[in-house]
Amino acid sequence: MSSVIFSESFMTIAAIILAVVFSSVVVVNIQQINNMQSIMTSTIKDKMETEVKIIFASTRDYEIHIYIKNTGINNIPFDLLGRGDLYFGLRGKEEYIPFNASSYPTWTYNVINDIDKDGYLDPGETVELVIYVNYTLSSGDYHVKYVTYNGVTSDYYFST
Question: Can you give the CATH number for the domain in which 152 is found?
Fold first, then answer.
């Protein structure tokens, strides 16, 4: 009889340990899912609140000047502008232009009107992107596409 009690006690303790381990795993997984959902919601909110618009482009010798206005409600830190992607070229022959590269083509940005001097491209403020190339632009239709750090895009077409 004592061996039956011992066996039942052992099985009960083993079942409790397994239940604790299982519930710990479930709780950790639920927390991870909750954290992922929070991150995804934050990312989607950031993207929905970000909107930029290329409002003008001009050319000077070996430079193309692109003016971008923040038309969203998100403040964009200036240091994130360089994390965006810029494409430029004749329509249908666009190429990726790296930011602040040591060779041509490359691009940088100039702050045009940081009204409150806070280091952000606030809604309504404009920034100038300057593309540097080592050739003069031929006549034709050109396309510029800027993609922000979080995937929001703006396109602009112009002719020379």
Answer: 2.60.40.10
Pair 81, 93 in one domain: yes
Q: How many CA atoms lie within 13 A of 66 on its CB side?
A: 26
In this structure, the answer to whether residues 155 and 89 fall within a common structural domain is yes
**DSSP codes of every residue in 10-73:** HHHHHHHHHHHHHHHHHHHHHHHHHHHHHHHHHHHHHHHH--EEEEEEEEETTEEEEEEEE-SS
Question: Are 18 and 81 within one domain?
Answer: no
CA atoms within 13 A on the CB side of 102: 0
pTM of the full predicted structure? Answer: 0.75
Task: Answer for the pair 3, 11: CB distance below 8 angstroms, yes or no.
Answer: no
Digit-coded pLDDT (tens) for 71-115: 999 999 999 999 999 999 999 999 999 999 999 999 999 988 888
